[in-house]
Write a structure and sequence with these properties.
Helix content: over 70%
Order of helices and strands: HHHHHH
Strand content: under 5%
Length: 96
Amino acid sequence: MVSKEDWNAAMSSEIFREYLGNELAKEANSKPIEPSENDVRQEFLKFQEMVLETPHMKTAFKKLQDKFLTDSEYASNINPDFVKGVLALDLTGEQK
């Protein structure tokens, strides 16, 4: 255990504080937190529900789906993950 005096001395050292900050940053960056597949699915379903509950958003995403399905050149210029996400939305559901 570190004594209070030793801890205070270490914390008053600018070099130690910088070192500690760098080590904590390295540790945080070395352990990326990956969301589980279930977490991602739940977030997607929440987003889909929000879209269905908001008429303006439902209309906008329906137009995007139609555009992506009918204009492959347009869709190819958009981030493919975004296109997949928009097309995965089930916009046939009714508001809850």
